[in-house]
């Protein structure tokens, strides 16, 4: 089982002698999402060549479309994470806007 460790700046996965580092968790999720979109659309295209597997092809297209629709949600999650990091910085003062 791979060991997953989370640091503020990166996500790491240790598998035996190897370690994979990802700068931010959202980048890994977005990359996997994009990969799944491509796989599902290619599989859907291949399954639609044969009349016996057309239903499976349509399900693959639907899955790819759902993953494609999730991309804006992932972007929102990324922007929210940036907002949280700003709150943790030393320069963040939520009362500054109220004083003006």
Structure description:
It is a single chain. 61% of the residues lie in helices and 14% in strands. It has 4 helices and 3 strands; from the N terminus they run βββαααα. Helix 1 packs antiparallel against helix 3. The mean pLDDT is 77. The longest helix is centred in the middle third of the chain and has 23 residues, at 25-47. It has a 3-stranded antiparallel beta sheet with strand order 1-2-3.
Write the layout of secondary structure elements.
Blueprint: E1 3-6, E2 11-15, E3 18-22, H1 25-47, H2 54-69, H3 71-88, H4 96-99
Antiparallel strand pairs: 1-2, 2-3
Descriptive labels:
100 residues; alpha+beta; 4 helices; 61% helix; flat
Order of helices and strands: EEEHHHH
Q: How many DSSP H or I helices?
A: 4
Query: What general form does the structure show?
Result: flat
Count of beta strands: 3
Radius of gyration, whole Å? 20 Å
Tell me the distance between the termini. 54 Å
User: pLDDT average, as an integer?
Assistant: 77
Secondary structure class reads alpha+beta
Helical fraction equals: 55-70%
Major beta sheet summary: 3 strands, antiparallel
Strand percentage, roughly?
A: 5-15%
The strand order across the widest sheet is: 1-2-3
Q: Point out poorly predicted stretches.
A: none
Short summary of the structure?
The chain has 100 residues and is of the alpha+beta class. The chain has helices at residues 25-47, 54-69, 71-88, 96-99; strands spanning 3-6, 11-15, 18-22. It starts with a strand and ends with a helix.
């Amino acid at each position: 089982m791979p060991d997953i460790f989370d640091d503020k700046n990166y996500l790491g996965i240790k598998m035996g002698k190897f370690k994979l580092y990802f700068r931010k968790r959202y980048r890994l999720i977005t990359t996997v999402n994009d990969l799944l979109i491509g796989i599902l659309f290619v599989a859907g295209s291949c399954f639609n060549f044969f009349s016996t597997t057309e239903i499976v092809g349509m399900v693959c297209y639907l899955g790819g479309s759902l993953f494609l629709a999730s991309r804006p949600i992932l972007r929102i999650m990324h922007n929210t994470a940036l907002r949280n990091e700003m709150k943790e910085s030393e320069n963040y003062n939520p009362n500054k806007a109220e004083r003006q």
